[in-house]
User: What shape does this take?
Amino acid sequence: MDEQKTNCDENESEPTADDNAPTKKLVSSSEESKALPAAEDLSGATSAPSSTPDGSVRACALCNCVERSLHGQRELRHFGPSSERPTLKPSASLLPQPGNDDLSSIGFSDSPCLASFFDDSGGCLVHHWCAAWSEGVKQVDNEELENVDKAVISGTQRLCEYCKRLGATIRCHAEGCSRFYHFPCSAASGSFQSMKQLVLLCPEHIDKAEELAGEESWCAVCDSAGELTDLLFCTGCGLHYHAACLEIGATPIQRAGWQCPECKVCQTCRCRVCMECGVHGLGLPGSAQWFDNYAVCEGCQRHRSSVCGVCSKAANTSVTLQSCSTCHRLV
Assistant: This one.
């Protein structure tokens, strides 16, 4: 697929592969993986609006799912351009319609117009996990993700091994393997995923999981690797569970976006409940965003941004509120 070109190549610079792209920095501990800051607090990226000024819904430039996807990609974020990315001429082409969250609609069936993924500033919209797991993307000390735009460029020319659609940027970690996946397809395919290292092993090389990840590849119930093909990956905490140990199935639909009982019980009825106001997800518009790992509704998040966390009073327009680095509440 490296030779395939986008449908508007005549208006763009041809992207080139960077074989020396920096590798991702390993997450230092499981605690860091389990407790990442809220969407608006990571450096180098901001929460993406659920729709554009003209009312159209925005989607991830890699998996083509919207913010409220149930496949565990985390929040949709805006990432700025890297310094070495080739300049792309503006394009009047529209982005493909977002997928409907079915596995069959992940990614892109045809090579999209590359420039349409980027705004006037050169930035793009990508889910946090879709970006963090992508080949060539690295995490720097302040938790900023770099080279996300390069991953978007390469993804427009790479087919996913599982769904056979474009936008795949997550390569199997096994030496010599050239299989790529979308983040939702990684789990659906039965690949082994290491949240500590942000790498995966495709089903063909899943036998190397214990060698790669040690105890991270063990089931949280039986404390053994056991049947590796039966492991379910929790997109919330990164732990693994044998489907047999939980007495549940392990179909592709169940695997994609699965979360363990400790993280979230239900994935299908949108029964999220705001921990501050108690509103149920079913009572909110479908485009409503959630924050703090889907624990706070959009309305309460806006209230947080305008009220002091100490005195609970609204901010004076002449006063700049500061955010606590631990709880992210305004003080």
